[in-house]
Amino acid sequence: MIINIAHLYGNLLNTYGDVGNIMAFAHEARKAGFDTNIDIISLGDDFDYKKYDFVFFGGGQDYEQSIVQKDLIKKRDSIVAYIENGGILLAICGGYQLLGQYYYDAYNKKIDGLKIFDHYTINQENKHRFTGNIKVKSALNKDDLYTGFENHGGVTFLGSKQKPFAYVIEGNGNNGKDKSEGFRYKNTIGSYLHGPLLAKNKNLCKDLINILRDRRNK
Ligand code: GLN
Q: What region holds the CobB/CobQ-like glutamine amidotransferase domain (predicted)?
């Protein structure tokens, strides 16, 4: 059986080895007996949400984010359908910001998000960034710890109905204030954890492979 992986804007958003998430996921999927096919879905490409089993949406610089934003809006309906259908989506940093309402970049330019989720992102004073190692505790499974590396100027606040992906033990996470890190909805995860997250945290990668298996066995 073949599983299809989409790397959204993989040629534009791919900071700090984010592509390692795809490598780790594909590696575990092959160990679980699947063959893998990886497509980059970028500017002007259709996103056929029915085709994909795993979608990765990585981080990027402000400039690339502003280019992607203009194209992204055309793929909005298929991304919403993919998410609501329970598809597995991992969005890191810039990708995570773009799923929300808006993002104010380091020069105070507003970049509209896809507005699929309620979170919004503003910038920090004097172009300050949150940079460094981060350790968090899963919100879903309290015994699961995840580690990663964060590097973001944006600070994100979740909407009142949104649930965090994890809680910060060390580092900053969404905003350095409320201890929340990322968000989770159905099988969609948004997070600031570069690392790459799935390469550094085999427990999370395996959880996603289990979800993949369950979806395939339905
Ligand atoms: N440009 C965004 C920020 O600085 C995202 C950075 C990233 O994806 N690493 O907040």
A: 4-201
Total number of residues shown for the chain: 218
When divided into structural domains, the chain yields a total of 1
- Ligand 1 atom 5 nearest Cα: 94
The reply to whether the predicted model has a pTM over 0.70 is yes
Q: Residue 133's domain spans which residues?
A: 2-217
Q: Which of 119, 152, 194, 205 is catalytic?
A: 194
CB 47 within 8 A of CB 14: no
Here the tokens at position 116 are 């699929």
User: Tokens in use for 114?
Assistant: 């896809």
Q: What is the pLDDT of residues 14-50, one digit of tens each?
A: 888 999 999 999 999 999 999 999 999 999 999 999 9
Please tell me whether 76 is known to bind a ligand. Answer: no
Full DSSP string of 25-38:
HHHHHHHTT-EEEE
CATH number, domain with residue 212:
3.40.50.880
Q: How many CB atoms lie within 10 A of CB 77?
A: 11
- Catalytic residue status for 205: no
